[in-house]
Amino acid sequence: MTHSVSAARAVDLRVEPVDRVLDRVERSLRTRLDPSTVVRKRRSVGARTDRDTWVRVERRPLDRIPGQGWNGTESAARLEGVAQPAWWGCVVWRDADEPVMWRADETDLLPGKPIGTAVLVEEPALSGEWWRAFGSSLDALARNTTGRVATPDTVTMTQGLVTESVQGVFPEVIDTAVGRWVPAHADLNWANMSAPAFSLFDWEDWGNAPQGLDAATLWGASLAVPALADRVRSERRHDFESRDGRLMTLFVCAKVLGPDAHPEDPRVEPARHRARQVIAELQTG
Question: Fewest Cβ atoms closer than 10 Å to its Cβ: which of 64, 78, 207, 256?
C-alpha cells in the first residue's frame, strides 16, 4: 500500500500511544527500556536501557527527511574535540501504515542532568570548568568539517533563509551576505546541554551554518535572565563581534520579535534593544 508524502498525520508523541514502537526498539537493539525513565517530547521519546545507555526514538514524516538524511547523532559521533555522549548504534524503519520513518539512536548516558528547559527564566549554577568545556567544545566544533547543512527548527539554513528572516523583521538591513560557514549544533539551548559536567546532545539538526549561529541561539534562549545572556555574549565574544555573528544575532532576534511573538514574552524587550544596537554596528562597519 502506498501513501502520498502529504498524508502524514500531525502527531505529538507526548500523547500518542508508543508502546508498539518501544517494543520494536527493544527487540531490535536487544535491550530493555526502563519505563520509569521515559521522557516524552513532541517529536521524540527517550528512555534508559538495562545496560545503562540511553535510547532516543524519533518519528519524522518523509517530507521532513532532507537529502542529507536524518542521522545527525550518528554523523556527529566522528566530531573531534566535542563533549557529547558516545554513540552506540541505531535502528531505522519505515512505518507500515503512514508516510513516516522511525529512528532509535542508542548513546551513553549523560554525565549530568539537562540544565533546564530550552528557554530559562532563572540562572543556572554553572562552574568555571563548565564554561571552559562549553567554549572548547564550540571552538572544536567549528574546526571540524562536514557536508551537512544545519536545519534549525528543521528548516535548511541557506543564505536565502538568513536574508528572508532578517529583512522580514528588520528591512533596514540591506546587506545580509554571510561570509563564513562553519559546523554548528543548530539547536543550542539549555535543554540540550548537561551539568555539572558539560555535554552537548540532540544532534539532529547539526551542519554548516553562519558563524555565530550557536552562540546567538543560546543567547536568545537566555534573554529572560539578563546576567546569563551577558555571560553567553562574554564567553563567545569572538562570535558575536564578527559580522556573521551580528547577522545571526538579528536572525535570532527576528524569531523572538516576528509575527508570532507573544507580547508578554520577557525576551521581547531585550531582543528589541539589542537588535537596534547590532543594526547600528552593522551600519557603521
Answer: 78
